[in-house]
Design goal:
Layout: H1 16-20, E1 24-26, H2 35-59, E2 64-66, H3 74-85, E3 93-95, H4 98-143, E4 148-151, H5 155-166, E5 174-178, H6 181-189, E6 193-196, H7 202-207, E7 215-218, H8 223-236, E8 241-246, H9 252-258, E9 262-265, H10 266-279, H11 281-291, E10 297-303, E11 319-325, E12 328-331, E13 345-351
Parallel strand pairs: 4-5, 4-7, 5-6, 7-8, 8-9
Antiparallel strand pairs: 1-6, 2-3, 10-13, 11-12, 11-13
Helix pairs in contact: 2-3, 2-4, 10-11
Length: about 350
């Protein structure tokens, strides 16, 4: 029986307030302002239109007539502009000169139209925003397939995703799951779809459409959280490739039993790289180069080409490190690795392609 060794604080449990936030899906795209901020901007614009109208009437006040006292002062100009822009038009203050009527046709009427557009646009914007987001969400759910789900968008999750993006994975095929709304907002600004919530809950992973995902990266900070997420993810999707990171090496077997296809021990891997760099700084530099995809040398898995079938490992164009045959991983110097078969896959070291 395995026991999970805990270490540190979990980014999947950053606080009780994060836990209480119900999960929701955030899609990338344009940043939608809050309704109150939208209303405030439109109200300011409406007031500017009103002030401009008052100024126009005040400057041409000699061409207007007030049925009450015959003259038009500033209050009358403000009153006329207000009832005119609101299309009320009581008729007690009217333009009677040709110039005043021409100004009404050329300036006041367009300003009235602009004023109405501002008011109607504000109402429609606030009322339809939620409907539009629901429509986008439904369209996204129908279209997302064979995507990558990243659970935990901290240092490990970001680094893993950057490696995948460097190999050509489009941002539209990535969904981030994290309990922090701030993290998901930042991911959305970077062009990723995100789900705010606790990934140990099946409804949160279902919101990320994990049941239709091709691969899952689990990069939580605590090993027990990684185990729970792995169990839940494997239950929802039997065919997805699941890769998980753990801090303690003794927890790796439990992750594999939970359904992870590959388990990376972050603490021991970093320690080995440090030790290698002490023994040979150049070797440590080479390993660091291999880890960073897209620069210098890359570690790549590819199928055997037809021209390579039947040949020895040493006769391939690339530097072969291992041969994947079925479920067996054969080192390059294993006698059974040669001759190569068409069904084999090669782990090779190649020079990174220059950026386009």
């Amino acid at each position: 029986m395995f026991h999970v060794k805990l270490h540190g604080q979990d980014a999947m449990a950053r606080g009780a307030e994060e836990k209480l936030v119900p999960h929701r899906v955030t899609l990338p795209g344009r940043v939608v302002e809050r309704p109150l901020k939208q209303v405030g901007k439109r109200l300011l614009l409406a007031l500017l239109v009103l002030a401009l109208t008052v100024l126009i009437v005040w400057l041409d006040r000699e061409g207007y007539h007030d049925n009450a006292d015959g003259s038009v002062d500033f209050v009358d100009a403000l009153y006329y502009a207000t009832v005119t822009l609101s299309t009320t038009g009581y008729g007690d203050v009217v333009p009677y000169s040709d110039s005043a009527r021409l100004v009404n046709v050329l300036l006041i009427t367009p300003l009235r139209i602009v004023f109405l557009i501002i008011l109607v646009g504000t109402t429609l914007e606030v009322l339809t925003e939620k409907t539009r987001e629901e429509w986008r969400l439904n369209r996204w759910r129908k279209s997302v397939r064979e995507h990558t789900v990243v659970v935990g968008f901290g240092t490990k999750g970001r680094s893993a995703l950057q490696t995948l993006l460097s190999t050509g994975l489009p941002k539209e095929q990535v969904v981030i799951v994290d309990p922090s709304s701030k993290v998901i907002e930042a991911a959305s600004l970077e062009g990723f779809a995100g789900v705010v919530g606790d990934a140990t809950r099946s409804e949160v992973l279902l919101s990320a459409e994990l049941q239709r995902a091709r691969q899952v990266i689990i990069a939580t900070q605590r090993d027990d959280t990684a185990v729970l997420v792995t169990l839940t993810a494997r239950q929802l999707n039997r065919g997805a490739k699941i890769v998980a990171a753990v801090r303690e090496e003794e927890n790796a077997p439990l992750l594999r039993q939970s359904g992870a296809d590959a388990v990376i021990t972050s603490a021991s891997a970093a320690g080995r790289l440090l030790g290698l760099s002490v023994l040979s700084p150049s070797a440590g530099t080479v390993m660091e180069d291999l880890i960073h995809q897209g620069t210098g040398l890359d570690l790549v898995e590819r199928p055997v080409r037809k021209s390579e079938a039947g040949r020895s490992v040493r006769e391939t164009e690339d530097l072969v490190v291992s041969v994947l045959r079925g479920h067996r991983l054969l080192p390059y110097d294993d006698p059974h690795a040669s001759p190569l078969q068409l069904t084999d896959r090669l782990i090779t070291i190649v020079r990174a392609a220059p950026p386009a």
